[in-house]
Amino acid sequence: LTEELFNAEKYHLIGQLTASISHEIRNPLTTARGFLQLMGRSGLDSATLERYRTNALEGIDGANAIITDYLNYSKPSVDEPRLLDVRQELASVEQWVKPLCVMTGVELVSRHGVHDELPVVGDSKKLQQCLLNIMKNAVESMPEGGVLTVSSRKENGKVLIFIRDTGIGMNEQQLKRIGMPFYTTKEKGTGLGLMVVTNLIQAMGGRLYFRSKPGQGTICEVHLPLKPEDEPVIPLPAP
Ligand code: ADP
Ligand code: MG
C-alpha cells in the first residue's frame, strides 16, 4: 500500500489550527489545575491525594505531548535555509529516540552505508522535528518491542531517508487519513505529528510516502532534493 500525502494544502488553515491547538493544550492544563487545587483541601486521605496527583500529571503530560509534536513548527520562523547534512540530522534525532527504544524493548538499527555527505538545504530544527515525529510513531507502533531501522542514501538527485518499523502497521483506511489534523488512533495521541511532517517536508520541496500492512509494520520514506553540487548556499549570518 502506497499513499502519498497531499493533504497539506487542504489543511493550511493555520489560523484556525492554531486556535484549536491552543484549545487542545488549555483543556488538559485546566484539568491539571483543577486537581492541584483540590489537593489543597484539608482532610484528604492518601488514596484520594494520589488520584488527584495522577490526574494532574496526566493533564500536564497531555499538554506536553501536543507541544512536543508541534513546537518547532509553530515557532515563527525566520526561514533561514542552511546547508544540512542529513546524516548528522539523523544522528541527532537517533540520540533522542534511543531512550524511547530502550524503554519499550525496541532495537534501533542505523544503516547509513558508505556515502559521504547527504547535503540538503533547509532548517535543521524543522527537519529534526519531522524525523523525530516519524521515529516516535515507529517506536509507538511497537509496544511489545521490535526493530526500528533507519537508513539513508542518494538517488537521482534526491536524498532518501527510510524509517522502518516492525510494528502494528496500518490498513488502507488509516493510510488515507494520516496527516490530517487531530487524526489519531492512540489513547494519548495528538494527531498532529504527521500533519506537521507533511507540511514541513513539502515546504522543503520534498515528498513523503508511507507503505504499511497491518500486523507487519510500516516504512516511511522521506525524499528531499539533494543540494546541487555546483550551486552555492548563500551563507547567512548566525542568528
Ligand atoms: P499521534 O502519533 O499523536 O497519534 P500522528 O499524526 O503522529 O499522531 O500519527 C497519526 C496516526 O497515524 C497514529 O495515531 C497512527 O494511527 C498512525 N501511524 C503513524 N505512524 C505509524 C506507524 N509507524 N505505524 C502504525 N501507525 C502509524
Ligand atoms: Mg505521533
From TrEMBL:
This enzyme's EC code(s): 2.7.13.3
Keyword terms, alphabetized: ATP-binding, Kinase, Membrane, Nucleotide-binding, Phosphoprotein, Transferase, Transmembrane, Transmembrane helix, Two-component regulatory system
Protein name as catalogued: histidine kinase
Leading EC class: transferase
Catalytic activity line of the entry: ATP + protein L-histidine = ADP + protein N-phospho-L-histidine
Species the sequence originates in: Paenibacillus pasadenensis
Species classification: Bacteria, Bacillati, Bacillota, Bacilli, Bacillales
Domain Histidine kinase: residue ranges: 20-228
GO molecular function: ATP binding; phosphorelay sensor kinase activity
